[in-house]
Amino acid sequence: MQVWTPRGSHTPALWFAVVISRDSVSGIPSDGRREYSRQPCCRMSVTRADVDSIRVGSNNAFTYFSLGALIAVIFLVAVTHT
Question: What single string gives the DSSP state of each residue in 53-65?
């Protein structure tokens, strides 16, 4: 999950095992690798008031490839059925 805060830069923090409560958002920082530490000692928390936005997922090459393949299949199906 990507979390943007006003104190952060224009780059979101990458967190996994995110918990959103009534007054805070917490998660374990990730460097983008699945094998990153899952130690509870590493959990970070910010108040919900300090969170600008949250996005599930990320923009990576596989996402764009999958979207392109889906569009190509839809186009081919449309062309063959006309």
Answer: EEESS---HHHHH
